Amino acid sequence: MNKDQVKGTAEKMKGKANEALGRATHNPAREMKGDLQQEAGQTRKDVGDMKEAVKDSTKRHH
């Protein structure tokens, strides 16, 4: 696991918390912020996943 995967997962969790808090307090701006955080976190995690896949494939071919 690399830092992009870890930070992406953490960002997704913060986003879920903000989304839930926004929904519970009827705060659409906070809910939207949570959605955006989750998307950004997923993107960062995806980048980390790709880096791991490349690293793994280069290890197997050497």
What does this structure look like?
The protein is rod-shaped. It is built from two helices and no strands. The two termini are 21 Å apart. It has one domain. It is mainly α and 62 residues long. It holds the Pfam family CsbD. This is CsbD-like. It comes from Paraburkholderia lycopersici. Belongs to the UPF0337 (CsbD) family.
- Structural class label: mainly alpha
Tell me the β content: under 5%
Average pLDDT score? 96
The helix tally amounts to 2
Task: Report the principal-axis shape.
Answer: rod-shaped
Number of strands: 0
Helix content: over 70%
Q: What order do the helices and strands follow?
A: HH
Question: Could you describe the largest sheet, including whether it forms a barrel?
Answer: none
Q: Report the span from N to C terminus.
A: 21 Å
**What radius of gyration results from the CA coordinates?**
15 Å
Number of domain modules: 1
Q: Give unreliable regions as ranges.
A: none
Mind sketching the topology for me?
Layout: H1 3-24, H2 28-60
Helix pairs in contact: 1-2
What would a concise description of this structure say?
Residues 1-17, 28-62 have a biased composition (Basic and acidic residues). The protein is mainly alpha-helical.
